[in-house]
Amino acid sequence: MIPMAEVHGSYSVALAMLLLVGLLFHFAAASVHDYAGEKFAAKGNAFVLHGGSEGLYASVPSSNATGESFIRFERITFIRSEEAASSKKDTGKVMVQAIVFEVEDRETIGGSAYGGQRAVCCTPDLAKLGVCTEGMIIHRASAQDLDWPKVLAASFKGSDLIATLPSQTIPISRTGMYNLYFIYCDPSLDGLVTEGKTIWKNPTGYLPGRMAPLMIFYGSMSLAFVLLGIFWFSQYAKFWREVMPLQNCITLVISLGMFEMALWYFEYAEFNETGIRPGGITFWAVTFGTVKRAIARVLILVVSMGYGVVRPTLGGLTSRVMMLGATFFLASEVLELVKNVGVVSDISGKARVFLVLPVAILDAFFILWIFTSLSITLDKLQARRMTAKLELYRKFTNALAVAVVVSVGWVCYELYFKSTDIYSERWQSAWIIPAFWQVLSFSLLCVICALWAPSQNSMRYAYSDDGSEDFDSLPLKNSQTHIKGQP
């Protein structure tokens, strides 16, 4: 007899890999998980279908049903082919099981006999040891709650083509990241498909646990953009005769940001109410956000080049800047649509990396071009002794440098967070990662608004043709000589 600790040790490799893949995709799966002809995949000695993974908070003790947290199974049916049914010669039962467990209890799933390869399904050797029933999922009771994990079963009898899982509701009494897998062990069920749905609910609504704080966050960001808009538009209306083209671009970015934050808030509110992600609202929230980010990057780039402040046009660079902005928009739009609107389980991890890389490369190119342009602009402003504009650009450069340093630091933290939390055990704080980028971009926008706010002195920062040589055509060395020669 082998020790129980050896039989019920850590996860099997197959189930661990499946759990990881499932957790990577759970974020956009929605709280109403529909299964329409879903097929099982072979993992080790089991055939497995990931049914969902979400962070769930414990039910709130209350007589009001809104405080309940649960996972509900509705009309779950398993359909096998006639060939599979006819190939089963005996009249015994063939079972499909559903197992629900909290991520901390993952080590209660799987086992091995005599130190062999770990398995999800009970093997003949383990059955002989009396620790499980052959053909069933290997599991033991959780140390936290003896009633967990929850295992449900549907049986095919004889030549039946359909097996139905009893409709029932599993109440959640412990906060955690919960996982659902449908598993069968009998190879004769090859080609089995699943129909039906499960409903996952938190005490405050249908939003998955890690997404729930984002509804409050986007509501707060909407208010922040309204306050920024009130400041900016009041200045804009007061000094409209002094407004520069750059300030019109800033107005557009603020307006897009207000729409984006409001749409995200309503998207999460609708999701929380119905359990189904509203595709239309999500699409427009993504699009407004992508347009805003593309315009903001182009705006920072052209400001760095001195457009509207020390030069009237970008000359031959206009088409290149617009091309870069359009390319960034397309790459970012595709990535965000896949993350938020598309069905995540339809795209592999490698494909997602393939979508992230173009956005990262374009961002790096923007940063390189921006700081190169800023260096040239600062040198020329200093050479021409444009003190007011030089001071403005130094503040702008410092703000951008701080933003880049903070961004690099946060990227490192994000990589550390994800690499050390492969099972999403820190799901309650995961919302901070996307929220940070919104706060950082908003803070940078506030700095730009403070530096370029419409005022009675706005035009002194604008480009003016004083009859001297063109700013771009004037070499730096000659410019310094020209200035020294002035009285």
From TrEMBL:
Instruction: List the InterPro entries.
Output: GOST_TM, GPR107/GPR108-like
Q: Where is this chain's protein located in or outside the cell?
A: Membrane
Q: Which organism is it from?
A: Dioscorea zingiberensis
Q: Which domain of life is it from?
A: Eukaryota
Record-annotated GOST seven transmembrane domain positions: 213-458
Q: PANTHER family under this entry?
A: LUNG SEVEN TRANSMEMBRANE RECEPTOR, LUNG SEVEN TRANSMEMBRANE RECEPTOR FAMILY PROTEIN
Task: Give the residue spans that cross the bilayer.
Answer: 211-233, 245-266, 317-335, 355-378, 399-417, 429-453
What residue stretch is flagged as signal peptide?
1-30
The protein here is known as: GOST seven transmembrane domain-containing protein
Q: How does it sit in the membrane?
A: Multi-pass membrane protein
Supply the source organism's classification. Answer: Eukaryota, Viridiplantae, Streptophyta, Embryophyta, Tracheophyta
What cellular component GO annotations does this protein have? Golgi apparatus; membrane
Keywords, A to Z?
Answer: Membrane, Signal, Transmembrane, Transmembrane helix
